[in-house]
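Sorry, explain these tokens?

***
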Amino acid sequence: MRKIALIALISLPLVAGFFPSTVHTSIQSVDGKTIHLKKAFPANGMSGVVIHSYANGLEAITSRITQTASDGSNVLLSADVIHHDELPTINTPVKRGDKVIGGYLYNNVLLLAPDADTYARITKKYHKKWIHPDLFALYLSVEGEGKPTKENLAIFARKYQIGLIGIVRKDTIALMDAISGKIVAQQSISNLPAKGQFPFYMRFDKLESGWFGSDSVGDYYNMVGAL
């Protein structure tokens, strides 16, 4: 079957427990920007993609949604989800019967941790496709950003096909949906360092261009607590 914009319609479910599972469902009804699903996502704040079927077996992602209530109520986030200069903009409205993948790309996770030991401990425990924070650090440096924000995390996540942001805070690890910016799961964690590497663990000390500009000193735990 042909696909539009090289979308992956099969997303691997994650390990049960801490990580919310990917859900395959469909739209039951549409009321303006409010979408009701046949099957709710495991957690409020989870985002999903809407997939419309066209003639001749063509399918495409047309919109993004995020769950606002445990009864399967969602709100439409954006219709512009596949921007590419060489591809036409898809303006297909969301319709009853459209397929939905909740927790799309949740197997791809960026982890912000206070030190190398904590990063290694978490990434060894969970079998995910871990996006190394070095890549995010380089992105921030190029963009001239001083520290992670919900806005630059969302842009980075869309650019590199990331579904979840793992954030190690004081005594807890939280999972933030990269699109909605909402926390979808959290659990306690022990044996954390008293002080974390700022702005987060990475394998760089600085770059010749001036690592993170004048904002290179700060408190890791205070910073991630604000996300």
